[in-house]
Amino acid sequence: MAEYPTLHILNKAPEHPRTAQCLAALAPDDALLLIENGTLLLATQGAPAACQLFALAPDIQARGLRVDTKQMKTVDYSDMVSLSLAAKRVISW
Fold first, then answer.
1. Residue 72 to residue 53: CA distance in whole angstroms
2. Whether the Cβ atoms of residue 9 and residue 36 lie closer than 8 Å to each other
3. What CATH number has the domain bearing residue 37?
4. Full-model pTM
5. HSE-CB of 8 using CA atoms within 13 angstroms
6. Could you list the residue range(s) of the whole structural domain that residue 40 is in?
7. From its phi and psi, is residue 64 left (phi > 0), alpha (psi between -120 and 50) or beta?
8. What are φ and ψ of residue 64, in 5° steps?
9. How many domains does the chain have?
């Protein structure tokens, strides 16, 4: 797994104010992991293209989302731990 300066973990729905704060804080070398209601961002036009994008597969499935895997990579819980370990810092939104 690649190393990232910051892993942003977003669990808020697209309309939540913290989602906008998270997206504004992203740097091009950062990674964004969408979990829980954060995966709903994949159903909008709000998913960023400037950083590495990941989404937790069980949360995508639980919300019945169909996603373009060219836009992002789906991960499982083990991958989520690996992503956290590969980041210099982790910010949960």
1. 5
2. no
3. 3.40.1260.10
4. 0.92
5. 23
6. 4-92
7. left
8. 65, 30
9. 1
